[in-house]
C-alpha cells in the first residue's frame, strides 16, 4: 500500500501485505463463516450425520459434536476462527448447543448479506440484530417452563435430549440416569442457591465391554494400582488416610557429607533410616488407617512394612484425585505424618483393586453421602468410548444448567419457531430500516427446524408451514417437529427438552459474532500470512485460507 505525494510514492504497508476493503472484505468474511456453519449443519438433530476427522498424524476422530469437529478442523481464515470461538464459548458456558450457535450465526450472516446487497448499511443491520437478540431473550424467558430440582424424570429427559443423535444414543436412558444421579450427588445448597461444580464428577474411560457397562461409582475411581503385591486386594470398612508428603527418608536441604570410618557406623546409619520408615508406618497404623493414598512416593522398605501391617497403599496419586477422595470419604489431607490422627481418616465401604481391560484400577466406593463421584465409561472401541464420553460431558453441562435456572424449553425447533413468530410482530413496532434486520433475524432462527427436517430426509418447507400453523394456536409455544413421525407435537410432553440457558447462550453468541463480522470492512493481512506461507488471507476468494476443500456451500 503506497500513497503518492508530490509524485514521490510513500510506502505505508509492505508490498507483500494483502488488503481487502469494503464489500469484498465483508463478502469474504461472511463466506468463510458460512462455510464453517455449513460444515456442521448436517450433524444437527437426532438424525444428524457424523464426521470423520483425520489429523496430520493420522489420528481419527468420529463425532457429530459441533465443537469437537471445529476444534479438530485445521481452520486458518480469521473470520472462520471467530466462528470456532463461538462453539468453544458455548461449550465452556453450557456444554451443549454448539452446533446450534454456529448454524444460527452462519444464517444471520447469510441474511445480512442479502440486506447489504439492498444497500442497507452494516451498522443498521448490526443494531437490528442487537435489538432482536435482546427481544429473543425476553421471548425465551416468557415461554420457558418451570422445572423442580426434585423432578428427576424431567432432568433425565434433558440429558437424553442432549444425547440424542450421538454415538451413545442406544443406551441414552441408562446414561441419563447415571448423569442425573452424579450431578445431584455433587450439588450443594447454600442460602437457597444451588451450586454444582462439575469438576467433582470424574469421568474415566476404558475400552472393552459395551456402552451399557458404563457405571456410576459413589466414590472415586483411580487409574493406579497398589504399590506392593502382598497388600490386600480388597479392604472392606476402609479407614482412609490422605497424605501429600512422601513416605521416604528426607534428603537434607543443604549439601552434607557424611564420613563413615567404621562398618558399625554404616549399619547404625542404615538402621536409623529403617527405624524412621518403620516409625512412619507405625503412625499410620496407630491412627487406625487401613488404606493410604499419598501424592508423593513410598520407599521400597516402607512398602514392605505397610504390606506387613496389611495396609492398602497407593502412591503418586494426582492432587486433583486426592482432593476428590477427600470430598468423597470425608478424610482430611495431611501434610505431616506426625499430625495424622483418627479424626483425619475418611471412610468408605470398599476399597478394591480391579482389573479392567489390561489395566488395574482402584475403586473407592460405597461412600456415605459422597460429594465427589466417578463415572466409568465403557465401549467396544476407542472411538465409541470417546464419543460416549463427549455425550456424557454434554449432559454434565445441560443438567446443572436446568437445575440452576429451574427453567426449560421445548426442543425440536419449538423455541426457534416461537421466537421467529414473536420477532416478526416486534419488527413492525420498531419500524425503520432496523425492521428489515429484525425480520432477517426472525428468518434466521428458522434455520434450526429447517436443518432438523433436512437431516431427517423430510421436506423443510412443509415442515416449516406445519410448525408455523401449530404455533398460531393458543398453546402452541412448545410445538416442535418429531423427525421420526414427521408430525408437529408438544415437545415438553414428548420429552424433548432443553435448558433455557443453552438457547439463550446460543442466540447471544451467534448474534454477537455476526455483528462483529458485519462491522469489519477492511482486512489487512501481514506479509507472513501470504499464499504459500501457511495460507491465512489469500487475495482470491476461491482459496478461502486453506478451507477450499470444505463442500456444502451454495453458489454465491
Helix content: 40-55%
SS field, number of helical segments: 17
Tell me the number of structural domains. 3
Number of strands: 23
Rg = 30 Å
Shape: elongated
Overall CATH class of the largest domain: Mainly Alpha
Structural class: alpha+beta
Beta-strand percentage? Answer: 15-25%
CATH architecture of the largest domain: Orthogonal Bundle
Mean of pLDDT:
85
Give the biggest sheet.
Answer: 7 strands, mixed
CATH superfamily of the largest domain: GroEL-like equatorial domain
List segments where confidence is low: pLDDT < 50 over at least 5 consecutive residues.
530-556
CATH level-3 fold name of the largest domain: GROEL, domain 1
Measured distance between first and last alpha carbons: 29 Å
> Please, what is the oligomeric state?
single chain
